[in-house]
Design goal:
The chain has 339 residues and is mainly alpha-helical. It has one domain. The strands form 2 sheets. The chain has a two-stranded parallel sheet. Strands 2-3 form a two-stranded antiparallel ribbon. The longest helix has 27 residues. The protein is globular, with a radius of gyration of 20 Å. The two termini are 13 Å apart. The structure holds stearoyl-coenzyme A and zinc ion (2 copies). Stearoyl-coenzyme A binds next to helix 2, helix 4, helix 6 and helix 10.
Length: 339
């Protein structure tokens, strides 16, 4: 069942869903863009070396993907990309960080498995950073503050210690909903065992065992290349989609509608909409869920009753926000009827 937020519905979590859009008259504008200060960066060499190695290995993996791997291995790597992608988009992002819908335990179990394949740290830690990203968007308390440039918002933020402002303000987050879920607690507690099995060992062993791929190709294609690829796609939402694209819903923020990113990110590039209406489970306005594989995935599970209470935004609220703060490009983006 769809749940159109009532005009003064309040924030379910106490942190995320500041209802500026749901209450058009009392519209708070978004957090003002604040310039990063010159706080000295403390480099984390462990990460710099690991990511440098990963990216070099991924280039070799990409070469093997194109020219050497068995076709089964390539299809397998592609399927792993979609599965691990959904673990981020439908799981960590729309379900856990934003609570934009609810899921019964079998779906949560599938999503936590997909999420572990993606190795972007435990869903609890991912959601914690992401709630900071929305709550303190484009300030020093935003983990990948896009005002610090493309490189910082893409990968640089994972190569340095976090800004003290983030750690200070982060103490105010309420994560009790996440810690209340035993599936998420289990993933976090055993992360250092589960993650290597899911992200690296299974993707190597399955091609080896089932279709006789050699282990070097299996490891570089289905583990390293696939992992680096999906990391970069995810990071593009923070870098490219915070820099390039139209702003039909709010011209005062950096997040933008970016189709190229959306295609690879399974529907997560409509980022001006998402920052304006973060509780919408579609993370986009588009009718008929166009270019939004994740929305179709959630809708499928809604049909069998495993996903429910999906939150969305009414046309009237979207329209009034478009008129008030949009950049005039909405006719390119509303894309007609809602499904
Ligand atoms: C990765 C994540 O890549 C990528 C996330 C991208 C997000 C994208 C969002 C876009 C929208 C969705 C679109 C999805 C599209 C997907 C498409 C798929 C096809 N709040 O972190 P520590 C406090 S991961 C509150 O160690 P350091 C807290 O007390 C890649 N408090 O900070 C904490 O202690 P504890 C693999 C916070 O030491 C303490 O600070 N992973 C918060 O400065 C220390 O925290 C890696 O490479 C907060 N948010 O280190 C590991 N944060 O934890 C990367 C911190 O005990 N990370 N505190 O409670 C690290 O190595 C480190 O975090 C660090 C910072 C070096 C970056
Ligand atoms: Zn963002
Ligand atoms: Zn979000």
């Amino acid at each position: 069942k769809r749940n159109i937020m009532a005009p003064n519905a309040s924030d379910v979590n106490g942190v995320l869903f500041e209802d500026d859009a749901a209450t058009p008259d009392m519209a708070l504008s978004n957090t003002p863009v604040q310039k990063a200060d010159n706080y000295p960066k403390k480099l984390v060499w462990r990460n710099i070396i690991a990511f440098a190695y990963l990216h070099i290995a991924a280039v070799y993996g990409g070469y093997l993907f194109l020219f050497a791997a068995k076709w089964q291995t390539d299809i397998f790597a592609y399927i792993l990309y979609v599965m691990s992608g959904l673990g981020i988009t439908a799981g960590a992002h729309r379900l856990w960080a934003h609570k934009s819908y609810k899921a019964k335990w079998p779906l949560r179990l599938i999503l936590v498995f997909f999420n572990t394949l993606a190795f972007q740290d435990s869903a609890i830690d991912w959601a914690r950073d992401h709630r900071m990203h929305h709550k303190y968007s484009e300030t020093d308390a935003d983990p990948h503050n896009a005002t610090r440039g493309f490189f910082f918002s893409h990968i640089g933020w994972l190569l340095v210690r976090k800004h003290p402002e983030l750690k200070q303000k982060g103490k105010g987050l309420d994560l009790s909903d996440l810690y209340a879920d035993p599936i998420l607690r289990f993933q976090k507690k055993y992360y250092l065992i589960l993650m290597p099995i899911a992200c690296f060992i299974l993707p190597t062993v399955i091609p080896l065992y089932y279709w006789g791929e050699n282990w070097v190709t299996a490891f570089f294609v289905a583990a390293l290349f696939r992992y680096a690829f999906i990391l970069n796609v995810t990071w593009l939402v923070n870098s490219a989609a915070h820099k390039w694209g139209d702003k039909p819903y709010d011209k005062n923020i950096k997040p933008s509608e970016n189709i190229s990113v959306s295609i690879f990110a399974l529907g997560e590039g409509f980022h001006n909409y998402h920052h304006t209406f973060p509780w919408d489970y579609k993370t986009a306005e588009l009718g008929n869920n166009r270019l939004n594989f994740t929305t179709n995935f959630i809708n499928f599970f809604a049909k069998i009753g495993w996903a429910y209470d999906m939150k969305t935004v009414s046309d009237e609220i979207v329209q009034s926000r478009v008129k008030r703060t949009g950049d005039g490009s909405h006719h390119l983006w509303g894309w007609g009827d809602k499904d």
